[in-house]
């Protein structure tokens, strides 16, 4: 049977696949042994690609609401409806009457990377909500303040490091996050084979923790306290040595003073860890020839998430491992702008605007997704810019399940004047849509990883065209987005190529004036005429490659379907720094101002018997969007409440029996799984479940719906600097169901 290469779009590992085809149907998927990055690795999600691609519940035509019911419509009718109803709302109530929600899958598609920024500019709205404030926003804030660029995220040099400290991450199940690394298990095994050390900090004994040389299981939510004690130990024992970074860093002495109170003995009661173990981790980190500290979801979605992410890189700086082979390095994506000359930049600002209802500060142009419901259901004036969100566009997002207090948001969505969704499924969020635009299956779309290559542990570039032709009646995902931009901007009826042409013209108008750009001094029209590609999206990719640091072309990528290896990560701090000082600013003012809140946490010791809830990942899941695949929904991928045996005995909870879980936002019932994989005082529920609402079309997911853990939250718990919802380490009460 014929085959076709395809980069997997189902998680951040971006593995290369080889698809087996029967006509236009995908019948098999295996790892691509010739892929320059993944070398044949594949996980259960990639192996399930045929089921995901051929899911009979995927929508094939647009849906339009008429007389309160969704009916099938053609594409012209769907976009006519959007244009006729959206522009009057924007013109009558102002651009901020429109809210835009971007979900996690956007980073896994070309369309999701290329067109939402154009949609934002075309509509003029400032009310942007994304999955970042349920995930990695603390990292963006921390590196933005440290280095001046919120996207300058250093990643562990997994293939060369001698010591890896993992905090709040479980890459054996997540496949890595903000660290694009196919075959994370193989890379950790290679670390052990070359005599390296793996230390894992997690309140659960995860698959990753079971591999560790040292596993610390602190009380959830105390990551920042533990990290502060590690930094304190480096200073107290004269182990801090930034090396060559010393001349490029300011604020080291201020950090020393700031962590003076966070001794291992001081944090031990709150963390529930032995002070000696904390000191041992700091000493091992400092003594390693090279080391990397890597933190993720567990240290981001907590009350002090930004401080924890800041302290991760403070440790990398103080041990001399930032921008160093074997430490943490800044990837150089093939589509990133060509490096500008070293020197001071504008830096990174927080809170340029504030949300209407609760006054949450904007971060990176976004407001907390946890605040979306109140922005819709809280009345305001009818003056432009002073009222509620009346229209909403969601793209690959399911915030009813992924954001706190889904019941309130569920009700709020019914009050909108217009809701437009780009999504292949009729799910818990899109069931409220007035217009639903379904993209085609992934086999019918081209793929390039714009965002994830910026977090990759090895520089490379790979492009795969659509594996099979577009099915009759479907519309290419990039065209859907382009026509949405036209309908929302008042240009409805113009050819979709006009959107891409305008984007190319704007990019070249800037590039030809920049001395460091490969297009400097060129004639924009001549440069644009030389671009190749069969679609506007391909031409834009070709432009970005040509303007990038390697000056590649789309034709070069097409000629090498298994990718181009651009080599291991290299030191390039001078290219990255954009702070006003042109140096690493180790203690930025916003972080210093948040430290008193962390000091107060030193005395926040829980009451005996108190329980805290944490989420968990599973190799067969990715948030809420793979539960409708039979091969992935089952086995050990279960929505159970994990409870330690001691807590189960104390609370009279039986394995397999239902228990009632109560939080500040509500309560739910879940089956108990008694296991010592969680430490005492901690219970765990996976996120992304709760597929039991009526009006959806998710046959497999609805048969095993699970419960929505985020319904235990009322949306009021946020990390103040990043606006990220506290999804881990919050208090709950658990009791057997009578």
UniProtKB/TrEMBL annotation:
CDD domains: MopB_CT_1. The keyword Phosphoprotein does not apply. It comes from the Bacteria. The keyword DNA repair does not apply. Keywords: 4Fe-4S, Iron, Iron-sulfur, Metal-binding, Oxidoreductase. Gene3D superfamilies: 2.40.40.20, 3.40.50.740, ADC-like domains, Dimethylsulfoxide Reductase, domain 2. SMART domains: Molybdop_Fe4S4. Residues 1-57 form the 4Fe-4S Mo/W bis-MGD-type domain. Pfam families: Molybdop_Fe4S4, Molybdopterin, Molydop_binding. This is Dehydrogenase. The lineage of its organism: Bacteria, Bacillati, Actinomycetota, Actinomycetes, Kitasatosporales.
């Amino acid at each position: 049977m014929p085959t076709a290469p395809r980069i997997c779009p189902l998680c951040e590992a971006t593995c290369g696949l080889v698809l087996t085809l029967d006509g236009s149907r995908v019948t098999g998927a295996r790892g691509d042994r010739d892929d320059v990055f993944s070398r044949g690795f594949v996980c259960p999600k990639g192996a399930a690609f045929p089921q995901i691609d051929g899911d009979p519940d995927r929508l094939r035509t647009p849906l339009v609401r008429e007389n309160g019911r969704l009916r099938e419509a053609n594409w012209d009718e769907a976009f006519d409806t959007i244009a006729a109803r959206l522009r009057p709302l924007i013109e009558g109530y102002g651009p901020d009457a429109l809210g835009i929600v971007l979900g996690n899958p956007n980073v896994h598609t070309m369309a999701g990377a290329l067109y939402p920024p154009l949609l934002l500019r075309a509509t003029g709205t400032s009310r942007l909500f994304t999955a970042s404030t349920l995930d990695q926003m603390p990292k963006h804030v921390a590196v933005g303040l440290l280095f001046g660029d919120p996207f300058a995220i250093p990643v562990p040099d997994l293939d060369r490091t001698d010591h890896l400290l993992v905090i709040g991450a479980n890459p054996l199940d997540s496949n890595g996050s903000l660290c694009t690394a196919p075959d994370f298990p193989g890379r950790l095994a290679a670390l052990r084979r070359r005599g390296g050390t793996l230390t894992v900090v997690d309140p659960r004994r995860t698959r990753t923790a079971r591999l560790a040389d040292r596993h610390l299981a602190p009380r959830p939510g105390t990551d920042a306290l533990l990290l502060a004690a590690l930094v304190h130990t480096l200073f107290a024992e004269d182990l801090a040595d930034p090396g060559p970074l010393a001349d490029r860093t300011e604020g080291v002495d201020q950090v020393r003073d700031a962590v003076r109170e966070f001794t291992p003995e001081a944090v031990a009661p709150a963390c529930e860890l032995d002070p000696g173990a904390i000191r041992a981790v700091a000493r091992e980190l400092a003594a390693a020839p090279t080391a990397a500290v890597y933190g993720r979801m567990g240290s981001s979605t907590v009350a002090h998430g930004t401080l924890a992410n800041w302290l991760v890189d403070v440790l990398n700086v103080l041990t001399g491992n930032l921008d160093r082979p074997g430490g943490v390095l800044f990837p150089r994506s093939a589509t990133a702008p060509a490096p500008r000359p070293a020197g001071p930049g504008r830096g990174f600002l927080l809170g340029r605007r504030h949300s209407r209802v609760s006054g949450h500060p904007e971060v990176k142009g976004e407001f907390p997704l946890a605040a979306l419901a109140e922005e819709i259901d809280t009345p305001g004036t009818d003056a432009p810019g002073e009222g509620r969100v009346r229209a909403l566009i969601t793209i690959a997002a399911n915030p009813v399940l992924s954001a706190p207090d889904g019941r309130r948001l569920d009700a709020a969505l019914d009050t909108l004047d217009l809701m437009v969704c780009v999504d292949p499924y009729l799910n818990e969020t899109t069931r409220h849509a007035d217009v639903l635009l379904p993209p085609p299956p992934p086999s019918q779309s081209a793929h390039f990883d714009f965002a994830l290559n910026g977090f990759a542990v090895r520089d490379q570039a790979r492009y795969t065209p659509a594996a099979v032709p577009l099915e009759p009646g479907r519309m290419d995902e990039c065209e859907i987005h382009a026509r949405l931009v036209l309908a929302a901007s008042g240009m409805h009826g113009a050819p979709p190529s006009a959107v891409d042409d305008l984007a190319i013209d704007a990019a070249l108008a800037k590039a030809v004036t920049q001395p460091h750009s490969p297009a400097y001094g060129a004639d924009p029209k001549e440069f644009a005429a030389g671009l190749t590609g069969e679609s506007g999206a391909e031409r834009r990719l070709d432009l970005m490659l040509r303007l990038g640091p390697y000056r590649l072309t789309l034709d070069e990528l097409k000629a090498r379907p298994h990718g181009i290896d651009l080599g291991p990560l290299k030191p390039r701090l001078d290219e990255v720094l954009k702070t006003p000082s042109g140096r690493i600013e180790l203690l930025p003012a916003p972080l210093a101002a948040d430290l008193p809140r962390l000091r107060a946490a030193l005395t926040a010791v829980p009451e005996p018997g108190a329980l805290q809830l944490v989420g968990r990942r599973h190799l067969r899941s990715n948030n809420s969007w793979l539960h409708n695949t039979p091969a992935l929904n089952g086995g050990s991928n279960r929505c159970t409440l994990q409870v330690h045996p001691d807590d189960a005995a104390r609370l009279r909870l039986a394995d397999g029996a239902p228990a009632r879980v109560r939080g500040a936002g509500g309560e739910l019932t879940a089956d108990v799984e008694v296991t010592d994989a969680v430490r005492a005082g901690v219970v765990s529920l996976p996120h992304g479940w709760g597929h039991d609402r009526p009006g959806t079309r998710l046959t497999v997911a609805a048969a095993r719906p699970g419960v929505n853990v985020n319904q235990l939250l009322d949306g009021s718990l946020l990390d103040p600097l990043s606006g990220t919802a506290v999804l881990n380490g919050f208090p709950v009460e658990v009791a057997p169901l009578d």
